[in-house]
Amino acid sequence: MFRRAVTALCYTAARALLALRPHVHRHLPSVRTAPLLGFNLDSRWSVTMTWPFSSFQPHDYSLPNPSWSPEMMRLYDHYNSLCEQEGGGKSKAPWVRMPSYNRLLKYAKGGQCLSKMVQAKARLFTRNMKEEGASFEYVVFLNKQEKMCTCIFQAGHLLEGPPGYVHGGAIATIIDTVAGALTTYLGGLVMTANLTINYRSPIPLGSVVLVHSLLEKMEERKILIFCQVTSSDGSKLHTEATGLFLSISLGHLIGG
Ligand SMILES: CCCCCCCCCCCCCCCC(=O)SCCNC(=O)CCNC(=O)[C@H](O)C(C)(C)COP(=O)(O)OP(=O)(O)OC[C@H]1O[C@@H](n2cnc3c(N)ncnc32)[C@H](O)[C@@H]1OP(=O)(O)O
């Protein structure tokens, strides 16, 4: 369901971008979408394709790869078993796995002065490492009923800060990503306005932790999120954070 919603969002955004930039126009099949960037928990979205840009299906990085540790796999299997299954099984299950690609918009203008070369090479920060297991390995599960996300995060060796532990900026990044995913689901296109982080205990490099992200308050364009990073068994608190996200227009993103 969420995958379809994200696809519809990407599709709608792509159409708007392409309308602004007719010289890159391509044929996009017709699709029934909700209003532009208007995610709604109760809406029923219907799309006839899985990827709006071409017949090429991008790699979904939220699926297991050989670098995932047994603990990562155990948690993945656990949350996956609580999910809606493709084809209708457990359709009432509140959890969905969120797919994750290394680009959000293929033709995003990305501000006013992004060159074609930069556009072509642009990649999502958390998905830009070719070597599996070297940096951010993660999968985000969304609970639609509880309006929360849980991310299973395995921190690779390139994320070192203090010797043997994860860099605080990398922790901030995964928190921003998980909270950003939740707020995108709740509020459409968003940007982080404020992130306040308390680092309570260091995260060992290579370990698997859980990043929980929960809606605290939603007031017009403002979405307030509470986050906790814990050890995989929940016994140790590593990090706490609050994030303020603001719904934005597509024009804000592309410098219009
Ligand atoms: C398209 C396909 C998508 C597919 C999707 C798939 C999901 C895949 C997930 C990936 C997840 C990645 C997640 C990365 C998320 C980033 O990393 S975003 C990058 C980092 N953030 C930025 O660069 C943002 C830079 N800042 C800005 O652009 C602007 O300041 C903002 C945040 C958009 C706000 O500007 P604005 O819209 O003009 O808002 P403004 O009118 O100033 O303020 C509105 C209200 O908010 C309040 N406010 C604004 N800023 C603040 C603040 N910092 N603190 C407190 N209050 C504030 C104001 O006081 C005002 O309040 P009221 O007066 O209404 O009560």
UniProtKB/TrEMBL annotation:
Belongs to the THEM4/THEM5 thioesterase family. It comes from the Eukaryota. The keyword Nuclease does not apply. It is found in: Cell projection, Ruffle membrane; Cytoplasm; Mitochondrion inner membrane; Mitochondrion intermembrane space. InterPro entries: HotDog_dom_sf, THEM4/THEM5_acyl-CoA_thioest, Thioestr_dom. This is Acyl-coenzyme A thioesterase THEM4. One of its GO terms (molecular function) is hydrolase activity. GO terms for biological process: apoptotic process; fatty acid metabolic process. GO terms for cellular component: mitochondrial inner membrane; mitochondrial intermembrane space; ruffle membrane. It is a peripheral membrane protein. Keywords: Apoptosis, Cell membrane, Cell projection, Cytoplasm, Fatty acid metabolism, Hydrolase, Lipid metabolism, Membrane, Mitochondrion, Mitochondrion inner membrane, Transit peptide. It is an enzyme of class 3 (hydrolase). Signal peptide: none annotated. The keyword Transit peptide applies. Its EC number is 3.1.2.2. Its main location: membrane. It catalyses: tetradecanoyl-CoA + H2O = tetradecanoate + CoA + H(+); octanoyl-CoA + H2O = octanoate + CoA + H(+); decanoyl-CoA + H2O = decanoate + CoA + H(+); hexadecanoyl-CoA + H2O = hexadecanoate + CoA + H(+). Residues 164-235 form the Thioesterase domain.
